Structure formats: C-alpha cells, structure tokens
Amino acid sequence: MRILLTNDDGIEAEGLECLERIARTLSDDIWVCAPAVEQSGKGRGITLTEPLRVNRLGPQRFAVTGTPTDCVVLAVNDLMPQKPDLVLSGVNRGHNVGEDCSYSGTVAGALQGMAFGIRSIALSQSLERFHDEVTAHWETAEAYAPAIISRLLAQPWQAGVVMNLNFPARAPEAVAEIEVTRQGFRDIGEMHAVRRTDLRGRDYYWMSFRGTKHDHPDGTDLKAMDDGKISVTPLHIDLTHMASLHDLKGVLGGVPPKTVVAAE
After folding, report:
1. Fewer CB in 10 Å around end: N or C, the chain?
2. Per-residue pLDDT at 57
C-alpha cells in the first residue's frame, strides 16, 4: 500500500513524525509532502496568486511553500509516480472537532485526497490547553491509530467520505473507549479578535478562542473529547441543507418571481 502523508503544522512538526511512525506500521511505501511552514486554519485554501516552490528533502519527502491542499495536489499529480492508495493528514497538534473541521488544514488535506478518489483520514491529538509549553500526548495517537486505521480500511466507504480521528488529551492507558461520533458545534462567540498596539501606535488584531467550557451533546466529537474518548467522525463535503432545500422548492422554482414580498 502506497501512503501519502501531509499536515498543516509544517514539515518539521512533531505530529508529522508521529504520523510517519503510524504509517510505517501499515506499509513501507511512505511519501511525505507537507507545507514548508505552518498553515493552520487555512482550510481548503489553494495558492493561486504566487508560484509554489518544492524542496526535495530526501527520498519520497517534499516540502512545499503552500497549503495542505496544494501539497496533496502536487504530490498526486506531479511528485509521485502513481496515485497513492491512502492519504493520512496530521497528526495535528490540537483536536479538530466541531466547526474546526470547516477551516482545518488537517481536514482539508484529507478532503483533497478524497476529491482524487483516494481513501483519506485526518488525525488530530487533543491538548489540555493550546499553548507552546504544553506537550501533546503523541503516544496516544501512536498507540491507537494503526489498529483503528486498519479496521477502517477493512470496511467499505461511501464515495465522498473522509474519516476524522481525534485522540483525547490523555495518556494511552487512561483512554478506555472509542466512539463513532457526529460533528458538533460550539458557541460561535468563542472565536474573537484580540486587539493590540504595535510600537508605532498602530492597532493590530490576533485571532483567538476563549476556550469557554460547555456541556456538549452526547454523540458529538466535542463530547467525546470532553469525556476522554477517541472520536471517529465520517465527514463529507456536501454542504447542502436538505430540509431547507425541500422547503424552498415550495416557494421558488419555475418562472423567476418579479414582485417583492415583505420579510418575516
């Protein structure tokens, strides 16, 4: 099995080293194509307004001056002799649950693999709190990911699905359960911009999260992280809200309307 590895934390990230160890329990044919610098929060962004540079760091190992999506596109179309059988993206430093999934570069790398018709998995290791001094429990992802991935690959997947694995901020021996979950949603007020002033008196802003504790619904990826469980969430890119689609078909369709009606 030929496996392509990518991430959004960059080619030198500890999580990528962890992912390589995980991948080598499954195959000896490992390819790495990751961003040259951290690309967290870039989502499915692609680089359109500047050239991409590729630095070959060793056999089957490349650093790209672009996003995780750029990396997967270049690897599959140009850098690899054949399309991989599996794309693994991560292991991200910090979980990717809830609305994180919509702007996560880790999930985006897996989504691009899926777009090429390749089975793809995103992996993330939760942290007690997001700070440089906090050490992630990489040993937890490393302990459990190989067996989970092997079981996922042994099952048929529906088209357009990626698997999103999140490991709790606990040592391996403290993890007792794994749960198949749905994507949860946080209070949108957690994201905010912190205003600061530079040495010339000009304001600048730093995006941040409040990290407020909430009681998340059972069955969600957020609740699994709260409870110290491993979360496995099947994701897909179809953003259509089917209930609204059916409701709108009753008022729009056929000849375009020309009269304005009052808003409710």
Report:
1. C
2. 98
